[in-house]
Amino acid sequence: MKVLAISGSPSRPSRTSKLIDRIASLLGEQDIETSQVSIYDFPADALIQADFSHAAIKRFQQQVRDADGIIIASPVYKAAYAGALKVMLDLIPEGGFAGKPVLPLVSGGSAGHLLAVDYAIKPVLAALKASDIHQGVFAIDAQIGSSADGHATLAEELDTRLRQAAQDFVGQLPSSPRQQPPALDLHSVVSRISL
Q1: What is the pTM (predicted TM-score) of this model?
Q2: Helix (H) or strand (E) holding 75
Q3: What span, in angstroms and rounded, lies between the C-alpha atoms of 87 and 175?
Q4: Chain-centre distance of CA 87, in angstroms?
Q5: Residue 76 φ/ψ, nearest 5 degrees
Q6: Three-class SS of residue 133?
Q7: Each residue's pLDDT tens digit, 49-58
Q8: Disulfide: which of 38, 53, 117, 158 matches 143 by Cβ 3.0-4.6 Å?
């Protein structure tokens, strides 16, 4: 099982990446592999020119196609998700999330940005035809810190919500690798109709 985390944070390291790391750790406990892609994985000229023939963009589109589920993570600025996330989502073909559950992870300076998940992020995910959009997890920046050795420290309440979100997200993932539907046997269909 593969999950792709798309980070919209323009900074690194970032609070957003700490949320992704924690979810990836929780999914790893369920033997689910999580890979991460950010704006830094693309040459600037390919992004600015929307060069869909560039190898990095083709690789990203393939990662999206191969993923069983998607994590979208972004900081919120002025009630909107980061422009870096918008640039990356624009690289995904229309309907690119079809058949894939999506888990939004959002961080912001205050709870006043909470509705950005519903009013800014979810409509974009719906336009990309995500099969199931999790309610998401919103974290206040103050809930995400770092220890002296650089490891993420999360408020207990936030970690509890992340654990629940990971559990819910695993329940949305396909239970087995995607398979082509069996070929239709026209002979058996015709014989059933004629009975």
Answers
A1: 0.83
A2: strand 69-77
A3: 31
A4: 15
A5: -115, 130
A6: strand
A7: 889 999 999 9
A8: 158
